[in-house]
Every structure is written in C-alpha cells, then in structure tokens.
Amino acid sequence: MNNSCCKKPNVGGQAVIEGVMMRGVDKVAVAVRKPDGEIAVDVNPVNSIRDKYPILKKPLLRGVIALFESLYDGMKALAYSAQISGDEDEQLSDREMVLTIITSVALAIGLFIIIPTWSMRFMHSLTNDPMLLNLAEGVLRMIIFLAYIAGISSMEEIQRVFQYHGAEHKTIYTYEAGLPLVVENVRPFSTLHPRCGTNFLMIVMLISMFIFTFLGWPNLVERIASRIILMPVIAGVSYELIRFAGAHADNKLVHYAIMPGLLLQKLTTRQPDDSQIEVAIASLKAVLPEEELTEQ
C-alpha cells in the first residue's frame, strides 16, 4: 500500500558498528548483524526531557536538547553494537557513557575551537582587522573539519560504518515515500539525505563562521569563552534549518542551500549491500507504530 500522499512522522537514524540505530516518535531501536549472521534488535522507549518540560520543545531550545540526547543515544547504540558484533565484551555503564560524552565534547572544543582561534596569533603579521581574523579562523575551522572527515573516511572499518549510514538514508527515504520496506524498494534511493547529521555539522560550521566574524577580537580566553557560550545558540538555529530543509527538500532554493552538506555526505556514506539494507529495515520497522507495520 502506498502512503506517499500522507505526511510521515520524522524518523532519524545513525550508523553504528555493523548496524543501524533508528529513532521514531516513541521508540528507539538498534539493529546489529551478529557474527553468526542473525540480526539482533534492541528496542527501548524514547525518554526525552522535553516530554517532562514542554517548554524545551520550543524552537531553538529543542535543537540543543535534541543534540545532547542524540549524543547520549548514539553512544549507547555504539556501545551496544560493539558488544553484539563481537568487538567488545562489556557494555558501558551510564556513568561511563556520560564520561565518554564529556571527553568527546572536550576533544571537539580543543580541535574545532581552541586550536583555530589560538592559531590566528600567526595572522597578526598580515592583518589586525578583527573581521578578517575571525573569518580566517572560521576558514581554518572548516579546513580542520573537512580534513578530519576525509581522514576517517579512508579507514576500512569506518567505510563499513559509512555503508550502514547509506543504508540508513535509503531506508528512511523508502519509508517517507510510502513504499513497503523491502530491499528491492530501498536499493534505488539516494544515500544523501537533507536531515543527516553531516548536514547539521556543515550548517553549524557555516553559521558559526558568519556569527563569529562580528564578535571583535578580544583576548584568547574571551574568544574561546564566547565561542563555547554561543555554540548552543548556533546548534539551535542549525537544528531548525535542518528541520526546514527536510520539510522543503523539493524546493530548488533549499536544495542549493543544503548542497554543501549533501556533497559532504559523499564522504560519510557509501553504497550498502543488501545484507546491510536488511539491518536498516529491521531497525526502522522496530520503531514504527503498529498501524504502519500492518501496511508494510
């Protein structure tokens, strides 16, 4: 049965080790290909702080909360997939998960905030213009980001994860088109999706480059502090833009605006094989409402 005429609720996902995580309206599932070839599926209810405090569902605020919740869910999914796929023997505790997230955020701050703004000390011999220095910092941040993505994309283990990333996008496209979730329907779709986290990161980079350009050029500590303080605001704006782009992906202007993020996905996705598509389908089906499953 084709339901392409009906608005589908947004489903998000993430590639993990030998698997895919999908998050629906009220459930989150992780499907992983086990060493024996079977697919293990772990399903849990969505527990969002936004349900307890409805004000956090307001524009801008919801983006910040969604970012931190997706980080937490993503880390849990990665730990589960590592265990099921045979790469690790133990699951991370909640405390270890929080520490891992804090460490990851700290490393990101160091790589994408501290290093670029500190490096601008070497630009002072060329210019003292605050706008040019901020712009140069933004360009350096973008170069570091692209180099990081290009570097990890060359790793063989990461390339398999990127295949599952492609399977995730293809499967979500199939669902949004109202087609039955079978491999034959999933295979023809694109691996590039406008609501992808890669798109989100690219938008964050571009918006931060624009905003930081007008902040002046105080001392190093103040520059670092201003960038950290403004990151939730930038994340909130970027989240709203991603939602808008996903809802208006057929608009030509929107398509051109998100083109940098789509092009970047050529690095972070690969064409999956049928067995990987099967895993993505199993994960998506696990989060769909019962009434939609009966239509598959």
Task: Outline the structure in words.
Helix 3 crosses helix 8, helix 5 crosses helix 11 and helix 7 crosses helix 10 (259-268). The chain is 61% helix and 8% strand. It has helices at 49-52, 61-84, 94-119, 130-153, 156-176, 183-186, 197-212, 220-247, 252-257, 259-268, 274-287, 290-293; strands at residues 12-16, 19-23, 27-33, 39-45. It is globular and about 65 Å long. It has a four-stranded antiparallel β-sheet. The chain has twelve helices and four strands. It is of the alpha+beta class and 296 residues long. The longest helix has 28 residues, at 220-247.
What are its keywords?
296 residues, alpha+beta, four-stranded antiparallel beta sheet
In short:
The protein is α+β, with helices and mostly antiparallel strands. Helix content is 61%, strand content 8%. It has helices at 49-52, 61-84, 94-119, 130-153, 156-176, 183-186, 197-212, 220-247, 252-257, 259-268, 274-287, 290-293; strands at 12-16, 19-23, 27-33, 39-45.
